[in-house]
Amino acid sequence: MKKNLRFFIALFVAKAAMVAQRLLKMNASYFPGKIAITLCPDFLGRIDKPETIIGVTGTNGKTTCCNLIIDSLTDLGYDVLNNRFGSNINAGVASSLISGSTLFGKAKKRIAVFEIDERSSVRIYPYVKPNYLLCTNLFRDSIRRNAHSEYILDIISKYVPKSTKLVLNADDLVSSRIAPENERVYFGIEKMESDLPESINIVNDMRLCPVCNSELEYDFVRYHHIGRAHCPNCDFASPDPEYKATVDFKNLSLTMKHDSKSFQFKLVNDSIFNAYNLTAVVALLEQFGIDPEKLSEVISNQKIVETRFSNEKIGNIEVISNMAKGQNPIACSCVFDYVRKAEGTKEVILLLDDVHDNAVSSENICWIYDADFEFLGDESIKRVIIGGVRAIDYKVRLEIAGVGKEKIVCVEKESDTPDAVRWDADKIYVLHELYRNDEALAVRDEIKRRLRQKQGGEG
Predict the structure, then answer these.
(1) pTM of the shown model
(2) Alpha carbon distances (Å) from 121 to 36, 154, 196
(3) What's the burial of 307, exposed, middle or buried (CB within 10 Å: 0-12/13-18/19+)?
């Protein structure tokens, strides 16, 4: 699309809004992009783009993968445009392109990495055409937006550009089927001792063959529908991955095999979902052209952002914060499973309320009955402390899950949850919702402060 007067007016106004935000010391956001798209609806099609665009989408893990890709490329000397301080919808991508353009809409950087919301495919891909698109996975998500994984699969498949090379999860029987006509490579994790013959989760959205509707036979299941399966009555089966990872959680290492070569990588932590994130990032960056040996050195320096995961041992107790992503039953189930499998005894604080904005928050709590709260009934978990306006809803769900009443503690305010900690476990977990980072980190820090005080250190 050619630039017209309407485009230039939108660009200048949006840039002025960015300047105003900086003067007011406001964080970067989608606001300038929203202004631009309001003034010029096809703004994304008219502004110049970087030569190479990497897109990252999927239900869970896209923010972590994006951060790892951006930080790795930056450490390797690339100047990368990105939207991690804005948003992953069309207005957020527009804001990033505006910040990375001249006054005449020319791109100032050659590479961009964009996190892209799955539902925003319809508004982004007609104008922004990634050279590479990584899809981490597709699960049922928010009841309000993404409750059906096949529905999201169809949206992405319909709008992803035909020229885009896909990097897909071979162990995900949903996302591995995106846009079958597109060029693609697959990544996956080889069979592990902890794998199961069938899913033990409440939710498994791939029980039936999408071709002939026969019941699928799983070769192994990792969690929900993540694993390998085949149909006994037709030729549908999990694809064979070009990038094959072997995971050693004890030594926090991952071995990637590709084209008869193998390379070692350091895991950022001991969770299976972050092992998948690392596998995805390595596959994507190798496709981009990064030498795996160089990448191995760079990856070892990367960390998960503090708002997603943090841990610190104070005395003999470890304090861990982990985002559990409320309204997302799969993400919560994975975190609950991770907690129960961790060594030692635990106290768990749940801060899952999504009441961050009454105008957009969901009052529908049916998602908690798709989440495996049963995992929190493990005997290693001594106490589950819940705070917030929906604490009673979670208490009821925990009781239905078979968690003993004596192990459940409810408090009215999230900020009061540290008062209920008894300090008699090896680990204290703070599991929190996506939009409650500030509250969760405040609770975590207060727990750390009290622990240091108990240890006789500084308060």
Answers:
(1) 0.91
(2) 19, 10, 34
(3) middle
Name the token pair of 342: 């961790």
Could you give phi then psi for residue 107, rounded to 5 degrees? -70, 135
pLDDT digits (tens, 9 = 90+) for 203-247: 999 999 999 999 999 999 999 999 999 999 999 999 999 999 999
Contact 208, 379 (CB under 8 A): no
Residue 144's Cα: distance from chain center in Å?
18
- Dig out the tokens for 200 from the structure: 């033990």
Bridge partner residues of 65 (DSSP): none
HEC assignment per residue over the chain: CCCCHHHHHHHHHHHHHHHHHHHCCCCCCCHHHHHHHHHCCCHHHHCCCCCEEEEEECCCCHHHHHHHHHHHHHHCCCCEEECCCCCCCHHHHHHHHHHCECCCCCECCCEEEEECCHHHHHHHCCCCCCCEEEECCCCCCCCCCCCCHHHHHHHHHHHCCCCCEEEEECCECCHHHCCCCCCEEEEEECCCCCCECCCCCCCCCCCECCCCCCECEEEEEEECCEEEEECCCCCCECCCCCEEEEEECCCCEEEEEECCEEEEEECCCCCHHHHHHHHHHHHHHHHHCCCHHHHHHHHCCCCCCCCCEEEEEECCEEEEEEECCCCCHHHHHHHHHHHHHCCCCEEEEEECCCCCCCCCCCCCCHHHHCCCHHHHHCCCEEEEEEECCCHHHHHHHHHHCCCCHHHEEEECCHHHHHHHCCCCCCEEEEEECCCCHHHHHHHHHHHHHHHHHHCCCCC
- The residue length of the chain stands at 459
270 confidence band (pLDDT: 50, 70, 90):
confident
